[in-house]
C-alpha cells in the first residue's frame, strides 16, 4: 500500500508543479487552488509512505516521478522543446535510479 501511495504522491508532484507554472505567480485562482490541493495531498502521501519505505528510497522515487512527469507534460502538452538528448537524459535518470536503488539494498 505504501508504494501505491508513493506513486500517486509522485504524480501529484507533477500536478502541483504544472499548476504552479500555470498560476502565473499565484495570480490565477483555479491553477492556484489546484496547486494548493495537490501539494498538500502529495506531501501527506509522501509522509504516509515514509512510515514504511526508507526516506532515501521514498524521496528519490517521489522526486523521480515528479521530475519525469513534469518534463514529459512540458514536452507533450505545453510546447517545450523535444529533443533526442532530453528524452535520453530522462531515460537515463529513470534507468540509473532504478538500477542504483536495486543494488543499493
Automatic annotation (TrEMBL):
InterPro entries: EmrE-like, Small_drug/metabolite_transptr, Small_multidrug_res
Localization (cell): Cell membrane
Keywords: Cell membrane, Membrane, Transmembrane, Transmembrane helix, Transport
Membrane topology: Multi-pass membrane protein
UniProt entry tagged with the keyword Ubl conjugation: no
Pfam families assigned to the protein according to its UniProt record, in alphabetical order: Multi_Drug_Res
Stretches that traverse the bilayer: 33-50, 59-78, 84-104
Entry similarity comment: Belongs to the drug/metabolite transporter (DMT) superfamily. Small multidrug resistance (SMR) (TC 2.A.7.1) family.
Record's protein name: QacE family quaternary ammonium compound efflux SMR transporter
Gene: sugE
Amino acid at each position: 500500500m505504501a508504494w501505491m501511495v508513493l506513486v500517486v504522491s509522485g504524480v501529484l508532484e507533477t500536478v502541483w508543479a504544472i499548476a504552479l507554472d500555470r498560476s502565473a505567480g499565484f495570480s490565477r485562482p483555479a491553477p492556484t487552488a489546484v496547486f494548493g490541493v495537490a501539494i498538500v495531498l502529495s506531501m501527506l502521501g509522501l509522509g504516509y509512505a515514509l512510515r514504511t519505505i526508507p526516506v532515501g528510497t521514498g524521496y528519490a522515487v517521489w522526486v523521480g516521478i515528479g521530475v519525469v512527469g513534469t518534463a514529459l507534460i512540458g514536452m507533450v502538452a505545453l510546447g517545450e522543446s523535444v529533443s533526442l538528448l532530453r528524452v535520453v537524459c530522462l531515460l537515463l535518470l529513470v534507468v540509473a535510479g532504478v538500477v542504483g536503488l536495486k543494488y543499493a539494498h
